[in-house]
Amino acid sequence: MTLASFIERSRREPEDWKYTDLDKLLARTPCEAVAPVRCRKGKKSDRAKLVFVNGVWKPELSSFGTAPSCLLLGDLESGYALTLGEQTCLVTQPIELVFISDEDAPGEIALKFSVDVGKNGRLTLLENYLSTVPATTVETQVALQEHSKFVHGKIVRGGVHLASHDIHAAAGSFYSNFSLIRGGCPARNEIGVSLDGEEAQASIDGVMLLRGKDHADTTAKVSHNAPMGTSRQSYRTVLDDGARGVFKGRIHVAPGAQKSDGYQLSRALLLSDRAEMDAKPELEIYADDVKCSHGSAIGDLDENAMFYLRSRGLSEEQARGLLIEGFVSEMLESVRVPLWRDVFAKEIKAWTS
Hints:
single chain; about 350 residues; 10-stranded mixed beta sheet; alpha/beta; globular; 9-stranded mixed beta sheet
């Protein structure tokens, strides 16, 4: 899906894009993009790290570690495929996809991925966007077979980043997503999960850190299409200066999807009178034996907590940073990979410092 495709979608679906007007956002003066990265040949490593430069996979910069080398197929034009389909395969080692743009990057990079995790399969994957071109679009299709598990992480560091994820989960499968969005002009991260089999589960968590002219939108939709499905959505957003954040979460329970259990929560911290947060939780339920709830809270820093920290000798800047870090760091408990948890913690620390 290209940038033009996203723009066309936003015009066809004005309600879904109510708070993120791409025409206006892309026409304004762009915010600062992440600097290009100089490519260097990497050392052989036990870690699985697949490097993409300007959207093109570079085997000479990559390492599969202990993961099977046949895991990744395809190219930028036709799309990449990560497959563990049609066989039981356990890839317990986390795999990191590193996306770099250099001085020769085009104005737009359109990435397309398909992920197929076979019956009883395991896959742990982190998308790490180290630098940005004027626009990066990502389209991801995920198929989880029975009793499979896919742990999916993502880090975005500004620029124009538009992503669409479509996940289908079979009976007994589990999908976990944690995204960290540091800026965006704009960034939109769409996560659509269909729980198509009994006892399928989904967990969608993340943090958005925005300042200046940043605009970031997380739109999460979970469809309970079979009985006894479980879903959790939890996001925290921090906004400063004139930044704007959007969280639109939806839980849909289809007829016959009895004993579905869905929960959704968005919390935001405003550090400026000019910052804006739009939260739109939605429940659409067509079954009578379910447990679903949602919540949203928006506020500023606790003055009593600030006073306490200042009275203990901390400067105002140090106290603010500590409270902000504490607000978002609770979300790291949902990160299931210790190495990633450390990476996310460093990113949060760098933003609050």
